[in-house]
Structure formats: structure tokens, C-alpha cells
Amino acid sequence: MTSEKKRHMTWTKKTALAAACLWVMGMAGTATAGVGDGPRAYMNAPVGTQMLTFNYMKQDSGFNIDGSPSQPATHIDADILALQYTRVVNIGGNAAGLFAIAPMGRVSGSLIGTAKEGTSSGLGDMQFGIVMGLVGSPALTPQEYASYEPGFSMGVLAKLSIPTGAYSSGKTVNFGTNRFAFQVGLPMTWNLGRSFVPGNVTTLELTPSAWMYADNTSPTGGASNQSRKPLYSLEAHLTHDFSSKVWGSLDAVYSNGGATTTDGVFDDNGLEAFGVGATIGVALNNGFGLQFSYGQTPKSNTYGFKDSLFRVKLVKVF
To answer: Assuming Cys at both sites, which of 84, 185, 203, 308 could form a disulfide with 209, CB separation 3.0 to 4.6 Å?
Structure first.
């Protein structure tokens, strides 16, 4: 093999790794403490790229149950491990990412000052989806990708969450949701760098999206039905390559909605929150990459609301 071919293969692997967080999704409709689905989640990648992503998330949340300081505070702690498989394909000349996510883990909660507490563990709600480019996201071979000059791109996101998670109506806390959920979004990216070559990438990213929910026909507390209004969000990231192996991001997420109605009675528990966070990504050898993210929610409409998230992603590109 010539030295030029070796350099091209090495560059292609590094470039694919730089885009390895393509279409990596978070959990279905949960607060994500300023991190969201994550930075560079919707960057284009060469057709044929395959990725395995291992996500570990530690989330710590607390709030007063009716939004006032006179009521007991609820504390929820979650440890989540999610395995995701992604493949980039060509659909009508545009790059598209098909993905499947299998989460598992443990969630525990307590009502401070009372005896009410609970724990749930096991498999979470499976998710399947697609992100397809609409503008500025052509289906590219690795050779075409190497010389492509990025600009503005926009795609469409569709994700289905299936109620496969551990759930019991008799439990105070459940890892599963016992309802179908569907997300739609329009991820947009302004590539400010000269190319996708590692060390030259700077992006501004915006993703407006909405989660819509089917009814939970067996909610906790002895009720017979619980509906949930859509949850809207706007996710933003400003990312920059510090070198060919290290990049960083400033992250933010605004969320609004998600109130429930139980047996015809409005629960008045909709959330309006603004979270901020930061991410560091590191390219390793042999097609591996690491990401570390941390975020908090400093502003919300709920008294005593606190939400923090620590996430580690290990990505393997094939």
C-alpha cells in the first residue's frame, strides 16, 4: 500500500470518527439538563458509516410537587445505560441515519418528609428512528466526503419510543413510561469551518422538536387514564475543534409543555425550563471516540426544581 493511500485511509477514519455522534439520541421526552441529544448529533457522514454508541447517563432531579415551598420535595435519581446502533444510508440522494436504541438502568425516587419512595430497574423504552437530510446533506462516498465543503444543512427527525420498559401501576417510580411517544424535529447546522477535516470544524446548531404522547391507560395511583400534552424544545450548540483530536461545545436546551391530565382532571404540571451545559469530545485510536457532557437547569417555572446530568459516550465507528 502506498503512503498516499495510507494517509487517505487514516484521514477517512478520523473524519468518520469526528462525525461519529451523528444522530445519537437522548432518552424519550425527559429533561436533559442543558445537554439534550448532544452537540454534532446531526453532522453529515459518509454513506455506509456504521456506529455503535454506549451512553451512560447519571441524572439527578428534584422539585416541589405543587410548585410551592410549602409542599414536600420530590427527589429522583436515575442511572441509565443505552446502546445505540446507527447506519448511514442513501435515500433519494440525501444522507439518512437509521438508528435503534436499547436503554436499561435504574431509577429511584422519594417524597422527602414522607414514607413514599420507590425503585425501578430493567429494560427501558426502546426507540427507533431516522434523521434524513433535506438541505445541504448529500449522500457522499468517503472520497467525496473528504473534499466536500460544508455550509448550511437541515434535516428532518422522526423517532418512535415503544413502551417496552419496566412498569407497574402499583409502583411510585417506574423506569418505563407505559405509553407510546413520537418525536419530530428539524435539526439545522451552520458549518462555519472550511471542511469536515478534524481540526477545521466549527458549527452552530439548532434543533426545534416536539414530543407527542399516547395515553397511559394504567397510570400509578389507581387512576384509569392519563394523557400528556406535547413537550416542545429548542436545543442549541456552539462547537469548535481545538485540534484534530479534541473538540468542545457550549450547550443549551429550552423546554416547554408536557402537562398531564389524569381521569379528566388537569394536573397543572407543565414544565418550562432552560438548561445549559458543556461537552468535550476526544478522538481515540482504532475508530473510537469519547464524549463527556455535564449540564444543569438553572431556570424553571417550578419552585425548587433542580436538574443535573452527567453523560459519557463511547463511540465505535465501522
So the answer is: 185
CATH number assigned to the domain comprising residue 81:
2.40.128.130
What distance in Å separates the CA atoms of residue 295 and residue 59, rounded to the nearest whole number? 10
For residue 65, report the phi and psi dihedrals to the nearest 5 degrees: -65, -25
If one counts the domains in the chain, the total is 1
Residues in the chain: 318
- Residues 109-136 have a mean pLDDT of 83
CA–CA separation, 294 and 288 (whole Å): 21
CB 304 within 8 A of CB 296: no
- Residue identified by cell 441515519 is 97
Cβ burial 255-266 (10 Å sphere, 16+ → b, else e): bebbebbbeeee
Taking only the tens place, the pLDDT of each residue in 145-200 is 888 999 999 999 999 999 999 888 888 788 888 999 999 999 999 999 888 888 88
pLDDT computed for residue 251 by the predictor: 96
pLDDT digit string (tens) for 64-78? 555 545 555 677 888
Q: Which of 29, 26, 28, 35 lies closest to 274 in space, CA to CA?
A: 35
Q: What is the 3-state secondary structure (H, E, C) of 30-77?
A: CCCCCCCCCCCCCCCCCCCCEEEEEEEEEEEEEEECCCCCCCCEEEEE
Residue for grid cell 413502551? 163
Structural domain of residue 48, as residue ranges?
Answer: 3-317
**How far is Cα 190 from Cα 42, in angstroms, rounded to an integer?**
11
Contact 77, 90 (CB under 8 A): no
**Is the whole-model pTM more than 0.85?**
yes
